[in-house]
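[job 0412] stage=fold_complex status=start
inputs:
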Amino acid sequence: MAQKKLGKQTVMFQNPPSIMATSSIVGPKEGQGPLKDYFDIIIQDDLWGEESWEKCESKLQQEAVRLALSNAKIVESQVDYLFAGDLLNQIIASSFSARSLQIPFFGLYGACSTMTESISLGAMIIDGGYADKVACVASSHFSTAERQYRYPLELGNQRPLTAQWTVTGAGASILTSQGEGPYVTHVTTGKVIDPGIKDSNNMGAAMAPAAADVIVQHFKDTGFKPSDYDLIITGDLASIGKDIAEDLIKKEGYSISKVYSDCGVKIFDNEVQDTHAGGSGCGCSAVVFNGYIYKELLQNKLNKIMLISTGALLSPTSAQQGESIPGIAHAVTISNSIS
Amino acid sequence: MKNINKKDYEKYVNKKIPKPKIIKNCMWAFVVGGLISTFGQLITNFVIDNGLDEKEAAIATPVILIFLGALFTGLGIYDKLGKKAGAGSIVPITGFANSIVSPAMEFKREGFVLGVAAKMFTVAGPVLVYGFGSSVIVGIIYLLLKR
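[job 0412] stage=fold_complex status=done
writing structure:
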C-alpha cells in the first residue's frame, strides 16, 4: 500500500527532504530584470566563453550544480543522483553536463515543468530511502530555444504580443535527507491536459488549465487552503496564462489571488525589457525558485510556498503538423517548518 | 477539474489576448517601406547619372539593396528595424536578403554544408518555390490568352 500517498495525486513525505543549498546563474537580460539582486551569477554574454549556445547552456547547468554543491559544502562524489532536464532535442544540455559531473544521472523531459519534476522525483527518492543527497537542476537558453522552436535571431520579424521570452539561465537545488529546511513536504504530480490551443506563441493559455488542475487537486488532496500559503507561484504562464489560471481556479471555488504570482511575470519588467507576455523556459522557474524564493525562505520572509512549474509539451514537428499543445504542471510544497 | 470545452476555451482566450496597435504598426511599415523604396530609387538615379542604361540600372539597384540588406543583417541592425517596421522591412528586397542571411549566420556552427548551405533557404525557400511556381502559372495563362 502506498503509505505516503494522499488523495489522488499527492505524496506527503514522512521524513521531508531538506533543500540544503541552491544556485542560480542567469543571462545578461535576466540580470537586468527586477530580480537581479537575487541571482548568484549573471553572465555577461550569451556564449559565456563557449563556441555555441548549446555548449553555453550545458555549461550553465554544470556550473549551477557545481555552485550549489559548493554552497552546500559538499562534492560531486557525495551526491547519489542527479535529476536534470532542459528543452533541447534529446536533452543534450543535461546529458552533456552530466558527462562532466559524473553523478549517477536521470535525464528528464517535462518541457518547462522540469524544475518541479526534478524536485518531486529527488524528494521521493530521498524519502523512499534510496538516497541521502540528490541534485536537481533545469536550464534553458533564449538562443538555443529560438533556433529550435522559432526563427533565426537576426531575422527581422515581429513577435506577437502573446509571445514569451525564453529565460537564459540554470538553477540547481541540493536535497538532503537530514537537514534543517526549507523542507519539501508535499508533491502533487500533474496530468497532461490539452485545452486545444494550437498557437505556439500563446503557451500561457495552453498551460494554464494544467496548472489550475494540479493546484485545485493539491487543495483537494491535502485539505490545504490558499491562505495556508505565503506564496503560490506558477512557472511560466506569464501575464495572459496567469490571469486564465486564476480564473479557472476561482471557478473551482478557490480564491488564490492574494498569494498568487508567476515566475514568468516576476523575472522581467515586460514594459521596459520588451518581453511581451513575460518569461518562459525551464530556466524561468529554476532561477526564480533557486534565486529569489529560496533566499526569501531562508530569511523567513516566506514560510510556506507552493511552486508549480508549467510545461508546454509541444515539439516543432507536432506544431507543424497542426497538433494542439498539451500542458503539464507539477506542484511542490516547500515549507520552513514540518508540522 | 471539469473537462474544458475546447471551443469555449478558445473564445475565452481570444478575449484575453492583447490587441496589437494596428494603426501605429501600419504607420511604421509604411514609412520604413517607403524609405527603403525611395532609397532604391535614389540608387537607380545615381547609377543612371553615372552612365548605366535603364536595363543595367534595374540590375544594379537590387544588387546594391541586397548587399545592404545582408550587411545590416550581419551587423545585427536589420532585426531591430524589422521589429518596429514589420512588413515595411520584410517586403522590400532587403528583407529577402535578411531572410537568407539570418539562417545562414545562425547555422554556421553546424558546418558549411549541412548548416549554412542547407539551412540558408529555410525561411526564403517557400517564397521562392511559390514565387517561381505562380510565375510559371501566370506565364502559361498569359501565353494562352495571347493566342
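[job 0412] summary: Chain B touches chain A at residues 1, 4, 6-7, 9-10, 12-13, 16-20, 25, 73-74, 76, 78-83, 85-86, 89-90, 95, 98-99, 101-103, 105-107, 109, 123 (CB under 8 Å).
[job 0412] exit 0
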